[in-house]
Write a structure and sequence with these properties.
The complex is a heterodimer of chains A (about 425) and B (about 450). Chain A has about 425 residues and is α/β, with parallel strands linked by helices. Chain A is built from twelve helices and 18 strands. In chain A, helix 9 runs antiparallel to helix 10. The termini of chain A are far apart. The model of chain A has no long low-confidence stretch (mean pLDDT about 90). In chain B, strands 1, 2, 3, 4, 5, 19, 20 and 21 form an eight-stranded mixed β-sheet that branches. The chains are: A alpha/beta (about 425), B alpha/beta (about 450).
Amino acid sequence: MRRRAFRFFAAAFALAVGLSAQDAAPVVAIVKGRVFPVTRPPIDVGTVVTRGNKIEAVGPYDSTPIPKGATIVDATGCVVVPGFIELHNHTGVSLSELNDMVFQTNPEFRVVDHVQWKTAPMRVAVAGGVTTLLCIPGSGTNMGGFGVVMKTWGKSPEDVVVRFPGALKVAQAGNPERGSGEVGAGRMGMNWVIRQTLEEARRYHRSWEAFERGEVQKPPQKNLRYEPFRGLFRKEYPIAVHTQWFQVVQSTIRILKKEFDLDPFVDHGEWEGYLNAPELVKHKIPAALGPREYDYDQKQAKFLGIAASYYWSGLSGDDIGVNTDSPVIPQEDLPYQVAMAIRLGLPEDVALKAVTINAARMLKLEHRLGSLEPGKDADVCVWTGDPFDPRRRTKTVVVDGEIAYDADRDGVLF
Amino acid sequence: MTRIATASFSKLFAIVALTPLLASAGAAQEASAKAPRPVAYKVRLALTVSGAPIEGAVIVVDGDKIAAIGKASETEIPFGADVVDLGDVVAAPGFVHAASFAFTSARDFDGRGKRDGGERRIADEIAPDRALLDRLAKNGFTTLNIVPPDGGVGGRGCLVRPVPETGRALRPEDVVFERDSCLAMAFAPRTSTKKFWSELLKKVDPKEAEEKSDGAPRSRASSSRPASRPSSGDSESRPTSAPAASKAADPRKDPKLEPLVDVLERKRAGLLHLAGPAALAHFEAILKEHEKFRPTFVLPPDSWAAVDLAAKYAKSVVLSTSASLRPDTYVYRFAPLEFVEKGVAVALIPETSAASAYVDYPFHLAEAARRGLEVDDVLRAATLTPAEILGVSDSIGSLDAGKRADVVFWSQHPLAPSARVVRTLAAGAVVYDESKEP
């Protein structure tokens, strides 16, 4: 009897705790701002309500109820946009841990094991309105390892991880080029090792598929080096390809897309890579551009905006992203990379998509990130004006439903 | 009008040669080129910088000057003037670069060196280049003060402006409109450079040196000199400092020292590049010694660390648009803001002397506004303040009647993120026109 009473009491207590925990989920209502949901038309005077780590409601201020007990963020005269997404970044790891250059390709390395997020640059990144990063290994070798998609703010190392693997980092030229006389001295050698590694990974993936279909009785031996490639071949996550020049974009299209049917996106896009835009369109490959936002074209004797050149060469406005390669460009300068892209000819409506929904789509996370819609992650930024106007700054930044930065509370950080 | 005036001669010649009808038109153009008619530019907004912005403004340009500026409804357009309605554009004065190394061989320098270049004129050394000149015009610059990049007394700067295509290689005299704009100096701390500066200033400012020191070493020095050296004229011009004057030659008569005397007497702009906060700390002893020597400091981004010291000795400073991080932290400090808060006039210049720096200059000016400066102050720091520092604010730096017609027409407010330059006038001539771009 006594025992039963105890059981009942314990169950009731657990229920109460559970309920109160649900109630305790933070509710934030950002009111009266000009809201840009990105995937829908702007709302002149709008409200965004977040509960827990998800967005609960987005709508006009007049018709969207504000839950009782919500923390109110007054965004009068401000612009409310989704948190920005960085597609090529090293802020989440210390620079000394960026490159393990053991072999020519090192897909076995994982950034996720040593992410750091409670750092000063990360705090300023949040203040700059950047809430999600694709943190990838360096381009010291042709495959640096698997990167992680992470938030810039969170409570624990697990809390900040959005998805691992985020993307495979491939670098087909430039930084991984070695001295002469060895494989990898030039682009032919580098492309050979990339092909060879991918070929082995595909063989591994196919042998497991055969086992899973029941065609083979004995399971293949697990191989940690090739295991993350399985999701890559299933197209669960993309390849971030560090490109710079025309030829590199060309080999991205030929090797990664045409030969191996993977989902690469052009990352760190620079120089005259835009000349490949028609081929990129044909193969549905998006491009993230930066850290260099302009190039001096000697033939035309004028400055070209790199993002603008990709756009005006035919790449869809839905397939353009912008990146900083932080710390090459400080992470908080992502909006100003975009501002430069605009100044040099990228249309403004494309610009907002570039660091929100387009970036989310490139990461295959558009169901969670990149726009202000109910059910998506509660990453919301309140700007004092147009986020791509260098005269403006953030007022409040909400990451996973909590106020990660507030200019009045924390001071203006940049 | 000015476009016709500057149309390439070969084009005119071709027109003349083609048909008699066109030939007469060509002749008319040529005639008008000699006495260009005034042009009235109508704009949505004119940011005068010297006064309040004017909505719906008209700017009358006659020759190389602004003849009139005001509201379109209140401003008389002279008879026979061409009216150019630019529509939805914003007019602003052209940017003035207070300390540029453009067209010199230097990129950056560290301020070391003990050059005694008072006679040197950088106007005799520059190699103007068309591509850079056009880039300046395209990005809103109408005046550059080119300074000799050398430690010590580098030499005399010159003022340069963009000019329309001449159809031949540019010559320095095409672009230089003031051959002697300022005296450029630089200091980086060394035992030898300190000695150099101390000795140099004693030559031009002996009186204060005499009063500060107890006089004993000076009298010994003068006794060792030949008695015939000082002239009677000297002692008359400096009756209060007979011992010093009797020993030193008049520095005004030495062409190397003369510009430095001008700087001391506030007759000439003096720009002193200081390599950093430490350089200023080391230079302070010299500044204390010579109360008349108060040049404008040209300082690097980390000079926020010496803002109190600099504010004590300089009424104006030249700073780049860069912010800098406090060492070992991720805390940004923005020197221009800190100087403005101390009441020091700030002229802003691009981040580096690299040609590409001009492309994103308006963008970095906008960032300066985010970092805390008022938008109007930012615009002033890029136009009128540098003109004041160089002592040419009566002719450039703002949109006012009587000033030189250095006008930049922007598609939006110049600090707006997607603002483009639509047209640039330098001394009334069209030096950039977006519609004529390939």
